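Pipeline run #58 for the internal structure catalog. This entry was flagged by the ingest filter as a single-chain record with no existing model, so it goes straight to prediction. Upstream metadata was stripped on purpose; only the residue string is passed forward. Reviewer on rotation: M.T. Logging verbosity set to normal.
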Amino acid sequence: MFRFFKKKQPAAPVEAPKPAPQPSAPREEWELVPNYLTIDPHDEPIAVVIAAATAAATVPDHELHLRRLAVQNPEAQRVAVIAASVAAATSGKQFVVKSIRRKVSGADATQV
């Protein structure tokens, strides 16, 4: 009479028609543009002195060893400013650029 506690009969599976295969287009590859570029501390003595002076001002009785030094990537900075400006001009809102990717051309894709 009532079917509250009885299991439902599984419906027969319906097979969806398979789409026609499309011709494969050349696959586009993208590489991430880093926000910061790592540089050798021995090549940039001015940046090392500034980093050491900043750290020494906060903790004067400790020793500082720079293992890695990074500077802002000018390409990423320029693209982020342009993209955020264009997007803000069209909608009037503020935007944050989370990541930037560059299209890898066919010759570069084989080398990567």
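catalog note: The mean pLDDT is 77.
catalog note: Residues 29-111 form one domain.
status: ready for reviewer M.T.
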